[in-house]
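User: Please check token order:
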Amino acid sequence: MSRTQLSIPVGLLVENVLTSGVPGEMIIEWLQRRDYSQLLPLVKESAMDFDERLQTATDIGDDWEKAIRQGYEFKFLHINGLKRLLDFRFDRKVDRDYVQDELSLKHIHLTAQEIELLQSLIGRQWLVQVEETEAAEEGRTEIESFSHLPVRIQLKFP
């Protein structure tokens, strides 16, 4: 079964509404009704224009409902979209939680489950690799070393 593919604006809409912690079916119902009053105070980026992004989804045929229910992958994702995804999904911010080196992101600490999820979202275009560096181990406890792995994300085809 192929995964639902979403454009950047629609994928980031999905990520933003998922930050609310509200069950998917309730999110879908509110978005279908275009009733955002209960959702906006709960999402990470309340200034996002939901109407515009839902219209984009309609215009280009992105199935955001299926994406919320079953997961999805990005059709294409630029570096700034990737950084927003990391913030929405994993609460990781550049210069606080990882380093940007041109078109690569380094030293992002994620669990094995998070790495697998991230790869499923961005794997068409980006390579997610566990870093093998001693520097990444400095300052971390033994428990953190086992639960969170340092990751590098880079374009598959630079």
